[in-house]
Structures are given as C-alpha cells and as structure tokens.
Amino acid sequence: PPYFKVRDEDADTSVITPSGRTIKLQCKAGGQPEPQVIWFNNNKKVITTEVRRPVGTEFRLRKNTLEIEDVAESDSGDYTCEAFNSAGSVTRTFKLRVVDRMRSKPIIVPNILVNQTVDANSTVNFTCKVISDLTPHIVWMRIEMTNDSIYYWNETDRKYIFRYTDMQSVENAIVTKTSQDSSTLTIVNVTVADQGMYACVSGNHLGHAIANATLTVNEFHAMTLATGNPDTKWSRSSVVAVVFLFILFIFTLSTTLFYIFCIRNVLKRK
C-alpha cells in the first residue's frame, strides 16, 4: 500500500502563518505501483475549476504539493491529501490557521520546542518557530540556575532577572536559521554537564517572546564484573607432577599396545 515520505522537519501538520504569505503543503508519497495524490479542502476535492478561494489566486497543484499564494484568514481550515493506488490508500491532514496581520511582538508556535531526554555522547536538536509580521530576531540561550531558581535579584536594575549563556558561544552547540521564522539549536556529544533549561527568545521592536525546554541526559555507568585472579605462575612441584603423569600415561599406553600385539601373534600361530 502507499506510504508518506515525511522528513523530520515536515512532521508537524499544524501550520500557523500570518496572512499574505505563500504556503506550500507537501505530501510526498511512495509505493508500488506509484501512487496518485489528490487534495481536499474541508472535505471538498481541490480542483481549480471546482474549489475556488474566496480571495486571491486559485489553488496550485505542483506534483505532490498544494500551493496557496497570498493566504488570508478565510483559507484557514483542514487540507487533506490522499495517496492511492491499486493496493490501497492513505491520508494526511494539515490544519492551517491564518492569522490576520497585526503589528505586535513575535508569537512562538507552541508544541514545537519540547523537553527531550537523550543518552550521553548523542546529538540533540531543539527547534523554535515564530510568527511575526516584522522580521524576528531569534536567540538561543541556556538558563543558569541561581540558588535553585532561574531568577535572581539584580541590585543595579532593582528587579529580578535571569542569568544565561548565549549558545552561539558554546563550543559543542550549533545554531541554524532553518527559515525566515524558525531556528534550530543542535548540541553534539552531549554530556551530563549539558543538562538544563534551554530557551528560545524572539524579539522585534514591539517586544519579545520566550519559550523553554529541558534537556535530560542519561549517563552511561561502567559495570564492573567480579572475576577471580587466576594464578598464572606454576609451582615447580606442579610441573613435576604433570610431567610424571604424562610419562606414566605414555608408559601405560605402550605396555597395553605391546600386550595386545603379543596376544594377536600367539593366536595366529595356533
């Protein structure tokens, strides 16, 4: 039966975007025979002559991708792709939410930046996605604890603030701008020292937004198995005993063979 080829960065089916942008919903499918893909908008088949948008241009179908230009709030809804062939069919639904443009501080899309637990020496990725009419500035930081709290009283500013480390300055951290409104923090060869709270901070001249997630690292503990200490040195008496037993074995074997040989000769003469 058909199946969808979904990359990690395309796994999220919840799409939130400001109005006026171009949205591309990808639905790559595989299978034998090669499946066909059709799209539905709120359970109506997307055909340029059948389903028209209230505003803007018509829907565009480019192979397995549905393209919507200049999205408006009226484009919000469910978009379902169905891949089918003679062996069966599968569906995948995207939930599109278009937010009217308004000049405001950035909005961080929820459920993208989440807590993670990984093993030591592995690699971890945190992703942060932002909604903003104005070009947002995204910074990754690690929140440092002070007396079991993320906040401390700053006498100079006379207010509570938090201490942090800019992840751009951390040797085993890589910050990647994956798109105009999203960024990924990658930490390689993680250790227990990397455990803690990581924050995505996005801002423009109207304000800022912050979201955080916690990293937990499972440390490997070496297991020691109790073993005996073998005596690698043989005593002189042990060597003598082994040699004596070997000589005795050879003598006994020789005597036995000689006896058997003599018995056979006697029987032949008779």
From TrEMBL:
Listed InterPro entries: FGFRL, Ig-like_dom, Ig-like_dom_sf, Ig-like_fold, Ig_I-set, Ig_sub, Ig_sub2
All copies of domain Ig-like, residue ranges: 1-97, 106-218
Protein keywords: Membrane, Transmembrane, Transmembrane helix
Ranges that cross the membrane: 239-262
A Pfam family assignment: I-set
Highest taxon of the lineage: Eukaryota
Entries under PROSITE patterns matching the protein: IG_LIKE
The protein's name in its UniProt record: Ig-like domain-containing protein
Organism expressing this protein natively: Wuchereria bancrofti
